[in-house]
């Protein structure tokens, strides 16, 4: 789940790394990467039994728990840790990130074998598995493409459906 949150926050981390700030485009509605990552962080404590209270399932109304300051801080800490991991991976692979951006500027899309080849060159977090969720998801119709520039990092989505 931590790797999933890291993947979901990679676009936000790329904004922080390349622009030293994040935009409003790094958030969004319930289907946004930030919302999904937040729900995963919350599920760790509320439905998987892996949280601070141990093997407890707290039900499907878990988002109500975000009103509890203690729970909110735990979720925030998990998300910040995941974003920091993504930032560390991106920093180690900054030249690759820049190469990918150049391809996006010139071709407006990066997908299939070309994207798989580039992602295969990613140096993962030390001690982590080398398979990234993005590589797996490529086989499920995901690609990287240039966006319309509204509310996202310099006109690019990190990975879009």
Word description of this protein:
It is a single chain. With 161 residues, this protein is mostly helical. Helices cover 52% and strands 2% of the residues. It has a two-stranded antiparallel sheet. Helix 1 packs antiparallel against helix 3 (33-46), helix 2 packs across helix 4 and helix 3 (33-46) packs across helix 4 (69-92).
List its salient traits.
161 residues, mainly alpha, two-stranded antiparallel sheet, 2% strand, elongated, disordered C terminus
Mean pLDDT: 75
Radius of gyration: 16 Å
- State the shape: elongated
* Lateral arrangement of strands in the main beta sheet: 1-2
Span between N and C termini?
20 Å
Strand-residue proportion: under 5%
Counting DSSP E segments of at least 2 residues, the number of strands comes to 2
Question: Which stretches are low in confidence, meaning pLDDT under 50 for 5 or more residues running?
Answer: 129-161
How is this fold's topology laid out?
Layout: H1 2-8, H2 10-19, H3 33-46, H4 69-92, H5 94-107, E1 109-110, H6 112-120, H7 133-137, E2 144-145
Helix pairs in contact: 1-3, 1-4, 2-4, 3-4
Provide a compact summary of the structure.
The chain is built from 7 helices and 2 strands, in the order αααααβααβ.
